[in-house]
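Lab notebook: predicted structure, single chain.

Context: the supervisor wants predicted structures on file for every construct in the current expression panel, including those that have not yet been purified. This is the next one on the list. No modifications to the sequence; it matches the entry in the shared construct table.
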Amino acid sequence: MPGTIDARLDELGITLPDAPTPRANYSPWVISRSTLYISGQVPFRDGELAYVGKVGDAFDLAEAQACARQVLLNILAHAKVACAGDLDRIARCVKLGGFVNCTPDFTDHPQVMNGASDLLVEIFGELGRHARFAVGAPSLPFDVAVEIDAIFELKG
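Prediction complete. Output recorded below exactly as produced.
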């Protein structure tokens, strides 16, 4: 029987992707006590990198927000694995951290991160509201447009 969050994903027409396999020597997630840490994720879609290039050059703001949304779906895919398939174990999102691979004159980093933040609140409601940072970077791994990490509090 699907949980509340799975039902909400269905209601929104969202299917989580398979959790991407790390391409380096790190764990995609770690649980310490009641905190779930999700390592920085990039925009994999259907097993391939998407949104390769700089925001402000290859991508406009709307495309960068879509990229951040895709990254959040990958974060939730890892969270689901970490929670043994039960996203209802998440008590709340504590923090998102976002890096935007952008041109030097691009300054709308917080607006890019709204692609992820808005979706998180849409899925989890008030429990999806979180602290966050959003900064521009001169480059990111694989030249992707956005990388995001996350911290979640787990129930019990």
